[in-house]
User: Fold this.
Amino acid sequence: MHVVLSRDPDGTVRVHDGAPRAVPAAGLASLVAASEGGARDERPLPRWTWDDTNRWYLGLLRAGVRVERSHDLRLVHRILRSSVPAAGSALATAPPGPWDAMAPTPAGAVPATGARRAPQDDSLFDLAAPAAPEPAPAAGTDPRAELRRQEDAVAGSSAPGRLRLLAAGESAGALVAAEMHHAGLPWRSDVHDAILTEALGPRPPEGHRPARLEELARQIRAALDAPPSLNPDSHPDLLKAMQYAGVGARSLRKWELEKLEHPVVAPLLEYKNLYRLLTANGWHWLDEWVADGRFRTEYVVGGVVTGRWSSTGGGALQLPKGVRRAVVADPGWCLVVADVAQLEPRVLAAMAGDEAMAGAGREGDLYAGIVASGVVPTRELAKVGMLGAMYGGTTGASAQVLPRLGREYPRAIALVEDAARTGERGGVVTTWLGRSSPGPGSAWDEAQAGAFADDAGADAAARARSVTRSWGRFTRNFVVQGTAAEWALCWLASIRRRLWALGAAPGARPGLAPAPFADRPHLAFFLHDEVVVHAPLELADAVAAEVRAAAEEAGRLLFGDFPVDFPLTVATVDSYADAK
DNA sequence: GCTTTGTGCCAC
DNA sequence: AAACGTGGCACAAAGC
Assistant:
């Protein structure tokens, strides 16, 4: 079942399964493709087991080869290393080793794996450029030995079933991340340029402000009676000028400026807004991150402590709503955009076994369900109340409704309160599937020590209290955000498998995506509780149905028969901006 | 000159 | 309303 891949120093690949063998690097893609193609016989497909998904899989994808299942030793090691359910294992108790030090392989460091080369790759130009060498695995990392340690740690843990699911989900997530990097997010540079030009004026020469910003800078100076030398990009200078003009702002934050009444506020807010567009997603961004009609970022699986993904490159997880108009499906294709409604409170309800809260989400909108139960008068209060419960809010409306939520949903609220108390005590909390939080670290220790020192004053005690509560908010949120991330991993894994099973639509027009996705629906974007699938138009309805089925499957995988729903909003659109 | 820190805003 | 979780990123200012 597990087929472990390793690489000799000379690049030769060793394949460890029933019949261990060595293959030249150039032969790997065809070997993997042959194993994946053998689905017609009864044997299950191999679980490709490697030190790092990017290192192996990106090359395979560039050779047009997809795999069904994998096991990412680096990612699973990280989880098991600190997982409380596996705390007694040899893996968890060993001194730090090379698997702990391993960083993810950057996509740029991975060359295409041999075989199935596209014709244009054989050009003289290509021959003149030597292929990049394969990135070397870390010294002292024997993948077979590590796999055994991981299997032992899981089998001997207090929750083998859950940890096994987490390992499979994390590994599948790594496949999805590599595939989304490979396929890219469809991006229309011309549309993006039109958005920028409409808002800012035409692209200015390097080092110059766009016309609209220049005009707003002029208005800002006029409103402040400031000299032409005033640069609105300089916070200290601008604040000084505003003070001089008696504006009364303590900072340049948007929400603070919005409270003021002064002629400078309107042009300044618009300036900040457009300046942000220019610097974060302007022409430079377009030049750097979009090529051949695709935006390619690097997803970092488990890049957030809670298990959420992060990304590096282009700020992919912060794409402003305003530029999503540039995300447009290829001709003859569409985007199926799906997001989960109120994922985190639903996950909380299921973890806590809180049937009342799960029931509030039965008809769709969970916050509306809370209102319908008579707990709070408005949807807005239900929402801020639940968010406050999960984030640790202590002020305002959120704190006001918390007691009523606690009375109606004692199990759910107790779960997050317990997680907070554990964190405040310096303890570790664990998600539903077994990812544990880091310890509080030296800042927490030092704060407590400070409060007990002989010369401790009121401020030291206050600081200790603040650090303590802050860590409690972290662990409170960790269990919910982390379990939501686990649900999302299972959702993604299921979507990925189902999309491939749909196959190519007969007669569909090929898109611009590279093999193996040129004629198949594929995941193109993922944002915590939201996915974008790029699909041939003919398959839009089928894709939507599979994405919904995948959400049901994810709920069952995590929470079995517990009656909790994960309803989706699904939209089939030409542009991402048209979803919801 | 360089790197680090602070500010502020975007996403969920 | 602006305190209440997780991040990435760009820029200017501060520090070396």
Summary: Residues 235, 251-254, 272, 276, 280-281, 308, 315-321, 343-344, 481, 527-530 of chain A lie near DNA strand B (CB under 10 Å from a C1'). Chain A has three domains: 1-181, 189-287, 343-482. The first helix of chain A runs from residue 28 to 36.
